[in-house]
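Ticket #4471: structure export looks truncated?
Reporter: QA, pipeline team
Priority: medium

Steps to reproduce: submit the single chain below to the structure queue and open the exported record.
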Amino acid sequence: MFQISIRQYLERHGFEVLCPKAVLFDMDGVLYNSMPNHAIAWQQSMAQFGIHMTADDAYATEGARGVDTIRKMVMRQQNREIDEAEAQRMYDVKTQIFHSLPEAPIMEGMPELMQRLTDNGLMCCVVTGSGQRPLINRILSDFGAYVDEQHITTAYDVQRGKPNPDPYLMGLRKAGDLKPWEALVVENAPLGIRAGVAAKIFTIALNTGPLSDQTLLDAGADLLFPSVEAFLKDYSALPLSR
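Actual output as written to the record:
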């Protein structure tokens, strides 16, 4: 299955070989089991502004810049266009609620996966639609042995968020101006998967949420695992070892 997926990826893009030097991880739902908290924060905050947002909406839009999600929801439900400053004020309310909730746990198996990647000489990077400083600080605290701040791409590094390729293209630049075939993307959400695919990077989906496997495959994922542990179990089948 792995070799077929890799061959299809190479043929689709006209690349000769997949030789990853870095792995670009999404944050929410990949590094941390944080999406349940985000869903609560989205629903409660948007209700204060007359916007009906469901848990499914939160999962479906995960990975996009928060201000972009808010502007789209306002236009769809209230038929009015708001500027980024107003969306940011609304997003600040969502952020406050999110940080009032219990801290989300590290995704089980993620430290082990990063250790194995590092042992094999691969660089670990993070590409997130968030720009919240407390979350960036937590990444550095929890994963500082594997990730440094120079290799974290946030919402403030790009003008266009996921599903545009820009965040992952920036991730490649921060990893040392790598080519698409020199990296892997690890994502859990349709918008993030679409962004990785649009950047022409081999994109692995981790289905850590309530969405169906087919939803993530339809977004273009090259491979899909049901958990980090499943990724670790089949690790040796991927072209990662040096």
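Status: closed, not a bug. The export was complete when the record was re-opened. Leaving a note from the reviewer for reference: The chain has a mean pLDDT of 93.
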